[in-house]
């Protein structure tokens, strides 16, 4: 069976990434023009497995399914007990007998890999400790809407070398963008030997150096879900990496600000910066729905 999993940017061919972006752009325009999308996923069901909390991912996937004429089922950590109440493989086999696609937000990335292995329906990574590919693609959609292009732009990521940073680095490399990253020592994105992977154009511990000449300044929380025990130590260590007006003064005047949200205002980003006209954070959040709608349309309706 030919199924289109979306597990990571690294495992998705570049022409498919472009196709998914174009599908999202078409469906966004269709809804804006006609007030609705065609019900191309009528009768189709997406199951959403969450081991962690979510606002955007849950609501954007569920809304996208409704817009396409289908439905979504939310499974909370308590309900499913993935890997505890039953094995990931058994859950995958059972769910793929009921539904048409599975979206999972997990701690271990391997759980999503295993779901995809044992499900005969497409599996989507809705965030793992390793990566957040739907976020990165919605972000590229937002960047392209703003600049009218992707190739040649530079994105500077300031903060933790985490799941969001990894997906952004890979996505930037696929669309010929430069990716700069500034992290505290010890919080870098690990180097990888994977040939499908990418390298940062600049990996530094100096946030000012990273943002100089950049078109997009991007940050994320210093404490990802599952790292709550490190909250105090991380907050102290990451303070010099705050995206504030002093750092933005080092970036070009045309540079935009992005954050995947949820934002911890006053920590990784200041109120004045996230609420400034150059901040695209809410357009970025809305595009989660549009990108994922394009992805679901491709998976469920050959769009
Ligand atoms: N950006 C993002 O994935 O948000 P949620 O954690 O609210 O889904
Ligand atoms: N890096 C964050 C992203 C939240 C959307 C986390 O994993 O918690």
What are the low-pLDDT stretches, counting only 5+ consecutive residues below 50? none
Query: Which band does the percent of strand residues land in?
Result: 5-15%
Bound molecule kinds, no repeats: phosphoric acid mono(formamide)ester, norvaline
Strand order of the largest sheet: 7-6-5-8-9
Oligomer: single chain
**Portion in helices:** 40-55%
CATH topology of the largest domain: Rossmann fold
CATH class of the largest domain: Alpha Beta
Overview of this protein structure:
Helix 2 (56-67) links the parallel strand 1 and strand 2 (71-75). With 303 residues, the protein is an alpha/beta fold. The chain is globular, with a radius of gyration of 19 Å. The protein folds into 2 domains: 14-132 and 288-301, Rossmann fold (3-Layer(aba) Sandwich), CATH 3.40.50.1370; 133-284, Aspartate/ornithine carbamoyltransferase (Rossmann fold, 3-Layer(aba) Sandwich), CATH 3.40.50.1370. The model has no long low-confidence stretch (mean pLDDT 96). The protein is built from 12 helices and 9 strands. Phosphoric acid mono(formamide)ester (CP) is lined by residues 54-57, 127, 135, 260-262.
Short description:
The chain is α/β, with parallel strands linked by helices and 303 residues long. Helices cover 42% and strands 13% of the residues.
Layout: helices, strands, pairs:
Blueprint: H1 14-34, E1 45-50, H2 56-67, E2 71-75, H3 77-80, H4 88-98, E3 101-105, H5 109-118, E4 123-125, H6 133-147, E5 154-158, H7 163-174, E6 178-182, E7 202-204, H8 207-211, E8 216-219, H9 231-238, H10 245-248, E9 256-259, H11 271-274, H12 281-301
Parallel strand pairs: 1-2, 1-3, 3-4, 5-6, 5-8, 6-7, 8-9
């Amino acid at each position: 069976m030919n199924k289109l999993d979306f597990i990571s940017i690294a495992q998705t061919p570049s022409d498919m990434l472009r196709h998914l972006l174009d599908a999202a752009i078409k469906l966004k325009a269709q809804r804006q023009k006609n007030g609705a999308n065609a019900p191309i996923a009528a009768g189709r069901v997406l199951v959403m497995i969450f081991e962690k909390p979510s606002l955007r991912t849950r609501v954007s996937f569920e809304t996208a399914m409704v817009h396409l004429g289908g439905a979504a089922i939310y499974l909370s950590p308590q309900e499913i007990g993935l890997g505890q109440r039953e094995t990931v493989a058994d859950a995958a086999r059972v769910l793929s007998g009921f539904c048409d696609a599975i979206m999972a937000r997990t701690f271990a990335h391997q759980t999503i890999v295993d779901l995809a292995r044992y499900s005969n329906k497409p599996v989507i990574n809705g965030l793992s400790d390793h990566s957040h590919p739907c976020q990165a693609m919605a972000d590229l959609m937002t960047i392209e809407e703003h600049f009218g292009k992707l190739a040649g732009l530079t994105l500077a990521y300031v903060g933790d070398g985490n799941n969001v940073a990894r997906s952004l680095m890979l996505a930037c490399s696929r669309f010929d963008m430069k990716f700069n990253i500034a992290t505290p020592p010890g919080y870098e994105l690990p180097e990888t030997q994977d040939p499908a992977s990418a390298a940062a154009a600049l990996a530094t511990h100096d946030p000012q150096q990273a943002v100089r000449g950049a078109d997009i300044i991007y940050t994320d929380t210093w404490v990802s879900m599952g790292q709550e025990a490190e909250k105090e130590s991380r907050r102290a260590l990451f303070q010099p990496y705050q995206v504030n007006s002093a750092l933005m003064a080092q970036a070009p005047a045309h540079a935009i600000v992005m954050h995947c949200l949820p934002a911890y205002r006053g920590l990784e980003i200041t109120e004045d910066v996230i609420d400034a006209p150059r901040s695209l954070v809410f357009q970025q959040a809305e595009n989660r729905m549009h990108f994922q709608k394009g992805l679901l349309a491709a998976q469920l309706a050959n769009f």
